[in-house]
Write a structure and sequence with these properties.
Blueprint lengths: L1 H18 E10 L9 E4 L4 E4 L5 E7 L2 E7 L6 E6 L5 E5 L6 H4 L14 E5 H5 L7 H4 L6 E5 L8 E5 L7 E5 L2 E2 L20 E8 L13 E7 L7 E9 L4 E8 L7 E12 L8 E13 L3 E15 L5 E2 H5 L2 H10 L4 H9 L13 E16 L4 E23 L12 E24 L2 E23 L10 E22 L4 E18 L9 E17 L4 E12 L3 H5 L6 E13 L3 E13 L2 E7 L5 E5 L2 E14 L4 E3 L2 E10 L2 E4 L2 E4 L3 E2 L6 E12 L2 E10 L2 E2 L12 E2 L2 E13 L6 E9 L7 E7 L16 E6 L4 E9 L1
Parallel strand pairs: 1-7, 11-14
Antiparallel strand pairs: 1-4, 2-3, 2-5, 5-6, 8-13, 9-10, 11-12, 13-14, 15-16, 15-47, 16-17, 17-18, 18-19, 19-21, 20-46, 21-22, 22-23, 23-24, 24-25, 25-26, 26-27, 27-28, 28-29, 29-30, 30-33, 31-32, 33-34, 33-35, 34-39, 35-38, 35-39, 36-37, 39-40, 40-43, 41-42, 43-44, 44-47, 45-46
Length: about 800
């Protein structure tokens, strides 16, 4: 009997083994380069694997036919029916951006295994919440990112900070072309209405990152790749509506490949919002056009985009007394600021949506057009080159009403005490040439490139109306003028070296040479004459160690240098800044969980930190901290809890300090020791809980927590007005796609409820003195008040997109 049972057990075992086989294969890109950490799954079996450093994988499967799904960030997912008796399986993935990902942004982007801390977003991910809000708002749930808007609803003047660094310290490129304003170094997303609808993918590198074009990255760099060339003709019509009169209308088209070589595509958009804040409306009109020629080894692509914006100013936020309902504080504010009767009644009768401005055309008006031409040539599997040309034309003004002004402030074009309406103009031209070459051998990739830009800008102000003009004054006479010119030349060489199966080295050397000149008067009619040259050397190096198929570690060092911007020169800050950035990271990638963890230490010399004050157009002013640092931990993960539920949390913990911070208090220089760097919370947490019961339905619950922060650099030593409370908000996002057989290919319904728990909060602010509203706040022991930017309470956006 025992012998019979043993034989039966043996037979069953042989049968089971006969029914199972080990499927092995390899995943490569279209150049046959192995793709490391690609995900390979057979969903009906709930089995999967991750490719190793050579792109190889193995999965134990039962005999028969199965659907194999292979995915990799930045590449189109492949679903392929396979048989268990296949002997040799090679899966080739094509970049989602076709050749564009390699030719337009490859010189400044990094691959997934590079020793650089970064996050990627694809077109599909961006589209889920693209209902009219600007790109900073769409990036809000990335690690260590905080976004905000003047109007409170995410449309118009919007802002983004990464690791506490504001927009002027985040390098932004579009197809490798610098986008930051060369003079202010800021990024004005209001001039890129609905640009998310023309974005193929983007990569946010935190810290210094890899060498890029344009101003140095002092907190992060964001490179945007515009729409890829489409193989097939198609289009879409998208409309969305929501709270505060917000609406977005977008029409897109593409001819697809004509004669296998030519493609033309475009987009027209209009976005309007009344804003959460009173009168803070935004009206954005934008366009995007591209034409391309491709063959086996050549890509020529012309891109033209731009538009116009009109935004009612909400630059000065809401006084603290208005937010708290402190009636006595409101009356004190009225007296101390000399408000008119109309302004006083507006303050008394408003709520947290209060806006300082009442003049019906207190608006910002700007037009900007970008012309890009890109040419890539692939000479062989080893060598390819790319050239990019750009011309940007920008011109615009903001109109402002001023009451009871001094004649001297307007070049005596008015009589003392006259009311006046002025327009302050910017009129600029920006030329860029980029070039790069990539040479690859087995285990070695070398990228050499450079960029040259020429920027000119005229600043001037006009009097367009006055209640009492001086004799011989004509409408549109100028009361100040200054011109500015800036030349920026940079070159870099990068090498990725595969030392062996375990180690990969990265070296990046950049030289940057800046020449800035400006002459004339500021808007306050103060002389501003600058003639400065800056020469920077920015080395970077890193090492990646692959422990096994699932775990890898990296270590990197990067240096960045930055020149002051125009406002800094106006404030007497003429020294350049230096940052040494150290990053240590661990990456885990399995079939069900991906984790990115990194420590960073950013050591600054002469960092220009936000002082907590703003100038007369709402721009934050900066002061030199001397020596400062940021030290922190970042974790982000993608955890597949079930086939239908995933969790995507991220956490940023940091300490951000000015060392031995010295300020003049009551005329005496005092050392306050280590103080907190302004607008740098110690805790930033984000999370996305995603439920996808079917392929065409996704429900996401998004949450964000931002810890306490300070508006200045005194750590609350002078006043609690300097402190911004922590806040926690949540959004609900639903996307449902219906496949159709007539007229349209599909119809996509999208819903977004922002701040679903109706939280009242502010995320930015400034503080001031009644004796000198725009002064540096370190000159006295008494802070007289603070202004804050309240963000919208519960609100919604809903849209429908017809794809054909």
């Amino acid at each position: 009997m025992k012998i019979l049972v043993s034989l039966l057990f043996f037979a069953i075992t042989l049968t089971i083994q006969a029914q199972s086989v080990v499927l092995s294969g390899k995943v490569v890109d279209n150049t046959q380069k192995p793709l490391t950490s690609a995900t390979v799954v057979i969903r009906e079996l709930q089995k999967g694997s991750i490719t190793d450093s050579e792109g190889n994988f193995k999965i134990k499967i039962p005999e028969g036919k199965h659907i194999l799904e292979v995915s990799y960030i930045g590449y189109t997912t492949v679903k392929k029916e396979i048989s268990s008796d296949i002997k040799e399986l090679v899966i080739t993935l094509t970049s989602e951006d076709d050749v564009l990902d390699e030719v337009l942004v490859s010189a400044i982007r990094v691959k997934s295994d590079a020793p650089v801390t970064h996050s990627n977003l694809t077109k599909k991910e961006i589209a889920k919440r693209n209902l009219g809000q600007d790109i900073p708002i769409l990036l809000n749930y990335l690690p260590s990112v905080i976004s905000s808007s003047d109007a409170g609803a995410g449309v118009g003047y919007t802002y983004m900070r990464v690791r506490g660094s504001d927009a002027s310290r985040i390098n932004v490129t579009i197809n490798g072309i610098p986008y930051n304003d060369a003079e202010s170094q800021g990024t004005f997303w209001v001039n890129l209405g609905d640009f998310a609808s023309s974005t193929q993918s983007l990569q946010l590198q935190r810290g210094v990152g890899t060498s890029t074009n344009g101003s140095g990255a002092f907190g992060a760099s964001l490179n945007i790749l515009t729409d890829a060339v489409s193989e097939e003709a198609g289009g879409e019509i998208s409309n969305s509506f929501g709270s505060f009169g917000t609406r977005k209308h977008t029409v897109k088209f593409t001819t697809g490949k004509l004669n296998d070589h030519f493609e033309f595509s475009g987009r027209l958009s209009n976005i309007y919002s009344d804003g959460y804040i009173d009168r803070a409306f935004t009206d954005l009109k934008s366009y995007f056009l591209q034409g391309s020629y491709t063959d086996e080894n050549t890509l020529v692509k012309a891109v033209v985009f731009g538009g116009s914006e009109q935004t009612y100013q909400a630059w000065f936020g809401t006084p603290e007394a208005r937010l708290t309902g402190d009636q006595q504080g409101i009356e004190d504010f009225i007296v101390n600021n000399g408000l008119t009767t109309e302004q006083a009644e507006n303050l008394r009768n408003s709520d947290r949506r209060y806006n300082h401005y009442l003049y019906d055309n207190e608006t910002d008006n700007y037009w900007q057009d970008h012309y890009q031409l890109h040419w890539n040539e692939k000479f062989s599997d080893k060598l390819s080159t790319n050239i990019g040309l750009n011309y940007t034309r920008g011109k615009g003004y903001f109109e402002q009403f001023k009451e009871g002004e001094d004649a001297a402030d307007f070049d005596n074009l008015i009589v003392d005490g006259s009311d006046v309406i002025v327009r302050r103009w910017l009129d600029n031209h920006f030329y860029v040439v980029n070039a790069s070459a990539t040479y690859s051998l087995k285990g070695l990739e070398i990228i050499a490139g450079g960029s040259y830009s020429n920027y000119s800008n005229d600043h001037y102000g006009e009097v367009i109306w006055g209640s009492d003009l001086a004799p011989n004054t004509n409408i549109r006479d100028r009361y100040y003028f200054s011109d500015a010119k800036k030349h920026d030349l940079s070159s870099f060489i990068k090498a990725n070296i595969s030392i062996n199966d375990k180690f990969n080295a990265y070296i990046d050397l950049q030289g940057r040479f800046v020449d800035y000149r400006t002459n004339g008067l500021t808007s306050d009619r103060d002389p501003l004459n600058v003639d400065k040259d800056f020469n920077f050397f920015n080395p970077k190096a890193g090492l990646t160690y692959r422990l096994n198929d699932a775990n890898s570690f990296y270590l990197s060092y990067a240096r960045a240098n930055r020149e002051p911007n125009r406002n800094d020169f106006e404030g007497g800050n003429t020294q350049h800044e230096t940052l040494d950035d150290f990053e240590l990271g661990w990456r885990l990638a399995t079939n069900s969980i991906k984790i990115n963890t990194n420590l960073f230490y950013m050591d600054y010399t002469n960092q220009l930190v936000l002082s907590g004050a703003i100038n007369n157009v709402g721009e934050p002013l900066r002061e030199t901290s001397g020596s400062s640092f940021r030290f922190g931990l970042e974790i982000d993960a993608d955890v597949r809890l079930t086939e239908k539920v995933s969790l995507r949390p991220n956490l940023g913990l940091s300490t951000n300090k000015n060392r031995e911070f010295k300020v003049p208090i009551d005329g005496v220089i005092q050392n306050l020791g280590n103080t907190d760097i302004s607008f740098s919370p110690d805790v930033i947490v984000g999370n996305s809980l995603v439920y996808a019961p079917t392929d065409n339905l996704q429900i996401a619950f998004l949450s964000k927590y931002v810890g306490e922060q300070f508006m200045g650099n005194l750590s609350g030593r002078i006043s609690d007005n300097e402190r911004l409370d922590s806040y926690f908000t949540s959004d609900l996002n639903i996307v449902y796609e219906v496949k159709t057989n007539k007229i349209f290919d599909s119809i996509v319904f999208t819903g977004l409820v922002n701040n679903i728990f109706n939280k009242e909060y502010v995320d930015r602010g400034y503080y001031f003195f009644f004796d000198d509203t725009w002064s540096n706040p370190g000159v006295t022991t008494t802070v007289d008040g603070a202004g804050f930017y309240p963000q919208a309470t519960i609100n919604f956006l809903a849209g429908v997109t017809f794809k054909f």
